[in-house]
Amino acid sequence: MAIRPVRLLGDPVLRSECEPIKKPRSPAVRLVADDLQETLRDLKVRHGFGSGLAAPQIGAPMRLIYIGTDEPVYLVNPQVLDIGTDDFLVWDDCFSVPDLLVRVQRAYHIKIGFQDLLGQRHKIEAEGAVAALLQHEIDHLDGILIVDRPSGLDAFCLRQEWNKQHATSGQYGEPYPRTGP
Fold first, then answer.
1. Is the CATH number 2.40.110.10 carried by domain 12-177?
2. Is 137 a catalytic residue?
3. In the chain, is it the N or the C terminus that has fewer CB atoms within a 10 Å radius of its CB?
């Protein structure tokens, strides 16, 4: 296991659409998985936040995500299977775009399918903050960053200024019915 440097906005690996993993049990996948876990653990200690990390963020263009919440999980080849009828606004942040928050629109409820590191298939449903986190990390696997998804006027804010101007109203808005496709 190694702590790997996080790739930053401008690094071409962040804009690559990652290839599906054919052998989830391979030593190469296990190595990247362990590095994702160790790197996120280090980021949480150094920055005081962070719940997920995608393989391209540490330079590995493969469809692998590590979510390091109360129940840590690796998602191999995750895909959104269904989204609910509501969206919500999120002040999203990202280790690849440090010190910047971007207001983005996300589905409030999602269902995703994925494999674990043994190749077993799973489906989970999530809403609110966890749904936003999963969508954010899956975007990384498709070469999409938060700077590509601004919503509304004045959608960009430096963390220091966000803490002064927006922190009291929170990072997540209320769900509202989706309009349009």
1. no
2. yes
3. C
